[in-house]
Amino acid sequence: MIADGTFEVQMTGEPPYEVVDGISLSRASFDKRFSGPLNGTSKVQMLAARTKVPNSAGYVALERIVGELEGRSGSFVVVHLGLMNQGAQSLTIHIVPDSGTGALVGIAGKMTIRIEGGQHYYGLEYAFPE
Predict the structure, then answer these.
(1) Are the C-beta atoms of 104 and 127 separated by less than 8 Å?
(2) Residue 93 pLDDT > 90, yes or no?
(3) Residue 130 has what pLDDT?
(4) For the chain, domain boundaries
(5) May I ask the CATH class of domain 2-127?
(6) What residues are paired with 110 via a beta bridge?
(7) Contact (Cβ atoms closer than 8 angstroms) between residue 64 and residue 77
(8) What's the pLDDT band for 21 if we cut at 50, 70, 90?
(9) d(CA 104, CA 54)
(10) Does residue 41 contact residue 31 with C-beta atoms inside 8 Å?
């Protein structure tokens, strides 16, 4: 099954906790509100690395999403891996196995994020065990 919708995001950044030879490591947290087939909120904790090379960076994050998906209430966790290699971006977001709660127990799948004209969009490809 596929759920597509929008989300709003607020970021709280922190100053870098370590800088060595121009490569900085930092933390940030995000609060999101999802609309559409996925209706709910999430909290995100992110770790990021910025390099001396313009447009090269990486991040990892964990996000717990709480709400309702197509009429099923509960929560699940996704893990992010984002890389930018001199401007070439890649992002993978997967649902953590066995992280579903409530009516979302057993959920599996992956998520995409895109930003167009300042609006954030999600795509959630998911399945439940038979």
Answers:
(1) no
(2) yes
(3) 81
(4) 2-127
(5) mainly beta
(6) 94, 125
(7) yes
(8) very high
(9) 41
(10) yes
